[in-house]
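This week, work through this protein record:
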Amino acid sequence: MNNVKSVIIVGIGGQGTLLASRVLGSAMLGLGVDVKVSEVHGMSQRGGSVVTYVRYGDKVYSPIIEKGEADIVLAFEALEAARFLPWLKSDGTVIVNTQQIDPMPVITGNAVYPNDIIGSVKSEGAKIVAFDALKLAEQAGSVKAVNVVLIGAMAKRLETDKEVWIDTIKSTVPKKFIEMNLKAFELGYCAKEI
Protein backbone atom coordinates (compact mmCIF):
# COMPACT_ATOMS: atom_id res chain seq x y z
CA MET A 1 0.00 0.00 0.00
CA ASN A 2 1.48 3.30 -1.06
CA ASN A 3 -0.85 5.68 0.71
CA VAL A 4 -2.82 5.98 3.91
CA LYS A 5 -6.47 4.93 3.93
CA SER A 6 -8.97 6.24 6.45
CA VAL A 7 -12.10 4.55 7.79
CA ILE A 8 -14.63 6.07 10.19
CA ILE A 9 -16.80 3.53 12.02
CA VAL A 10 -19.97 5.07 13.46
CA GLY A 11 -22.90 3.67 15.38
CA ILE A 12 -24.91 3.77 18.56
CA GLY A 13 -23.53 2.57 21.87
CA GLY A 14 -23.85 -1.20 22.22
CA GLN A 15 -23.83 -2.01 18.50
CA GLY A 16 -20.30 -3.41 18.48
CA THR A 17 -18.45 -0.60 16.73
CA LEU A 18 -15.41 -1.06 18.97
CA LEU A 19 -15.10 -4.75 18.09
CA ALA A 20 -15.39 -3.79 14.43
CA SER A 21 -12.50 -1.34 14.81
CA ARG A 22 -10.41 -4.03 16.54
CA VAL A 23 -11.09 -6.49 13.72
CA LEU A 24 -10.24 -3.87 11.06
CA GLY A 25 -7.06 -2.81 12.85
CA SER A 26 -5.93 -6.40 13.43
CA ALA A 27 -6.66 -7.39 9.81
CA MET A 28 -4.56 -4.49 8.55
CA LEU A 29 -1.72 -5.47 10.88
CA GLY A 30 -2.06 -8.98 9.46
CA LEU A 31 -1.52 -7.48 6.01
CA GLY A 32 1.70 -5.92 7.28
CA VAL A 33 0.74 -2.25 7.24
CA ASP A 34 0.98 0.46 9.89
CA VAL A 35 -2.30 1.08 11.75
CA LYS A 36 -3.54 3.77 14.11
CA VAL A 37 -6.92 3.57 15.88
CA SER A 38 -8.65 6.28 17.91
CA GLU A 39 -11.91 5.63 19.74
CA VAL A 40 -14.20 8.56 20.41
CA HIS A 41 -16.95 7.52 22.77
CA GLY A 42 -20.17 9.50 22.75
CA MET A 43 -23.01 9.30 25.23
CA SER A 44 -23.39 5.62 24.42
CA GLN A 45 -25.33 4.80 27.57
CA ARG A 46 -27.98 7.26 26.37
CA GLY A 47 -28.13 6.08 22.78
CA GLY A 48 -25.45 8.50 21.60
CA SER A 49 -22.94 8.13 18.82
CA VAL A 50 -19.81 6.06 19.16
CA VAL A 51 -17.12 6.92 16.62
CA THR A 52 -13.84 5.18 15.84
CA TYR A 53 -11.16 6.39 13.45
CA VAL A 54 -8.95 3.77 11.79
CA ARG A 55 -6.08 4.79 9.51
CA TYR A 56 -3.70 2.37 7.84
CA GLY A 57 -0.96 2.37 5.21
CA ASP A 58 2.82 2.39 4.81
CA LYS A 59 3.30 4.95 7.60
CA VAL A 60 0.50 6.49 9.66
CA TYR A 61 1.34 9.42 11.90
CA SER A 62 -2.06 10.12 13.45
CA PRO A 63 -5.37 8.28 13.83
CA ILE A 64 -7.43 11.46 13.50
CA ILE A 65 -9.58 11.85 10.38
CA GLU A 66 -10.65 15.35 9.41
CA LYS A 67 -13.73 16.28 7.39
CA GLY A 68 -13.36 15.25 3.76
CA GLU A 69 -10.63 12.66 4.48
CA ALA A 70 -12.44 9.33 5.00
CA ASP A 71 -12.20 6.72 2.27
CA ILE A 72 -15.00 4.77 3.97
CA VAL A 73 -17.71 5.66 6.44
CA LEU A 74 -18.91 2.37 7.95
CA ALA A 75 -22.27 3.22 9.50
CA PHE A 76 -24.13 0.83 11.79
CA GLU A 77 -27.31 2.91 11.53
CA ALA A 78 -28.82 5.12 8.81
CA LEU A 79 -28.86 8.45 10.69
CA GLU A 80 -25.21 7.98 11.68
CA ALA A 81 -24.35 7.66 7.98
CA ALA A 82 -25.94 11.05 7.32
CA ARG A 83 -24.27 12.65 10.35
CA PHE A 84 -20.80 11.60 9.25
CA LEU A 85 -21.19 12.21 5.51
CA PRO A 86 -19.09 15.43 5.76
CA TRP A 87 -16.06 13.30 6.70
CA LEU A 88 -16.24 11.33 3.43
CA LYS A 89 -13.84 12.03 0.56
CA SER A 90 -15.47 13.01 -2.73
CA ASP A 91 -14.61 9.55 -4.12
CA GLY A 92 -15.24 7.72 -0.82
CA THR A 93 -17.87 5.10 -0.03
CA VAL A 94 -20.54 4.91 2.66
CA ILE A 95 -21.34 1.36 3.77
CA VAL A 96 -24.52 1.51 5.82
CA ASN A 97 -26.87 -0.76 7.70
CA THR A 98 -30.39 0.42 6.77
CA GLN A 99 -31.56 -0.18 10.34
CA GLN A 100 -33.06 2.88 12.03
CA ILE A 101 -32.55 3.44 15.77
CA ASP A 102 -34.38 6.38 17.25
CA PRO A 103 -32.06 8.85 19.01
CA MET A 104 -33.08 10.33 22.35
CA PRO A 105 -34.76 13.48 20.87
CA VAL A 106 -37.02 11.22 18.76
CA ILE A 107 -37.77 8.95 21.73
CA THR A 108 -38.76 11.94 23.88
CA GLY A 109 -40.93 13.43 21.11
CA ASN A 110 -38.74 16.50 20.56
CA ALA A 111 -37.76 15.48 17.03
CA VAL A 112 -38.85 13.24 14.18
CA TYR A 113 -36.63 10.62 12.57
CA PRO A 114 -35.83 11.91 9.05
CA ASN A 115 -37.45 10.23 6.06
CA ASP A 116 -35.41 8.50 3.35
CA ILE A 117 -31.95 9.03 4.80
CA ILE A 118 -30.41 6.63 2.28
CA GLY A 119 -31.93 8.64 -0.57
CA SER A 120 -30.63 11.87 0.97
CA VAL A 121 -27.11 10.45 1.24
CA LYS A 122 -27.28 9.30 -2.39
CA SER A 123 -28.51 12.74 -3.48
CA GLU A 124 -25.33 14.24 -2.01
CA GLY A 125 -23.43 12.27 -4.66
CA ALA A 126 -21.88 9.76 -2.27
CA LYS A 127 -21.16 6.21 -3.36
CA ILE A 128 -23.30 4.16 -1.02
CA VAL A 129 -23.58 0.47 -0.21
CA ALA A 130 -26.80 0.09 1.79
CA PHE A 131 -28.33 -3.16 3.00
CA ASP A 132 -30.18 -4.67 5.95
CA ALA A 133 -27.28 -5.90 8.08
CA LEU A 134 -29.63 -6.63 10.99
CA LYS A 135 -31.54 -9.19 8.90
CA LEU A 136 -28.28 -10.87 7.86
CA ALA A 137 -27.06 -10.91 11.47
CA GLU A 138 -30.27 -12.68 12.48
CA GLN A 139 -29.62 -15.24 9.73
CA ALA A 140 -26.13 -15.76 11.16
CA GLY A 141 -27.60 -16.46 14.59
CA SER A 142 -27.62 -13.20 16.58
CA VAL A 143 -28.61 -9.56 16.14
CA LYS A 144 -25.31 -8.76 17.86
CA ALA A 145 -23.44 -9.92 14.74
CA VAL A 146 -24.38 -6.76 12.78
CA ASN A 147 -20.83 -5.50 13.30
CA VAL A 148 -19.24 -8.53 11.65
CA VAL A 149 -21.79 -8.45 8.80
CA LEU A 150 -20.71 -4.86 8.12
CA ILE A 151 -17.03 -5.83 8.39
CA GLY A 152 -17.69 -8.47 5.72
CA ALA A 153 -19.23 -5.90 3.37
CA MET A 154 -16.30 -3.56 3.93
CA ALA A 155 -13.68 -6.31 3.49
CA LYS A 156 -15.06 -7.06 0.02
CA ARG A 157 -14.79 -3.40 -1.02
CA LEU A 158 -11.24 -3.10 0.32
CA GLU A 159 -10.19 -5.91 -2.04
CA THR A 160 -7.86 -7.44 0.51
CA ASP A 161 -7.07 -11.09 1.19
CA LYS A 162 -10.28 -12.62 2.57
CA GLU A 163 -8.33 -15.20 4.59
CA VAL A 164 -6.69 -12.44 6.66
CA TRP A 165 -10.16 -11.30 7.75
CA ILE A 166 -11.24 -14.85 8.59
CA ASP A 167 -8.07 -15.44 10.63
CA THR A 168 -8.59 -12.11 12.41
CA ILE A 169 -12.17 -12.99 13.36
CA LYS A 170 -11.02 -16.37 14.66
CA SER A 171 -8.40 -14.70 16.86
CA THR A 172 -10.56 -11.77 18.02
CA VAL A 173 -13.99 -13.10 18.98
CA PRO A 174 -14.63 -15.53 21.86
CA LYS A 175 -14.28 -19.16 20.77
CA LYS A 176 -17.95 -20.03 21.31
CA PHE A 177 -19.00 -17.26 18.87
CA ILE A 178 -16.47 -17.93 16.08
CA GLU A 179 -18.76 -20.01 13.87
CA MET A 180 -21.62 -17.50 14.09
CA ASN A 181 -19.28 -14.60 13.34
CA LEU A 182 -17.71 -16.37 10.36
CA LYS A 183 -21.21 -16.90 8.98
CA ALA A 184 -22.02 -13.21 9.62
CA PHE A 185 -18.82 -12.17 7.83
CA GLU A 186 -19.66 -14.32 4.81
CA LEU A 187 -23.23 -12.98 4.65
CA GLY A 188 -21.89 -9.42 4.73
CA TYR A 189 -19.20 -10.22 2.18
CA CYS A 190 -21.86 -11.50 -0.23
CA ALA A 191 -24.57 -8.97 0.68
CA LYS A 192 -26.65 -7.51 -2.13
CA GLU A 193 -26.97 -3.77 -1.76
CA ILE A 194 -30.35 -2.09 -2.11
Observations:
- The CA atoms of residues 68 and 87 lie 4 Å apart.
- The longest strand covers residues 88-97.
- DSSP finds eight helices and six strands in the chain.
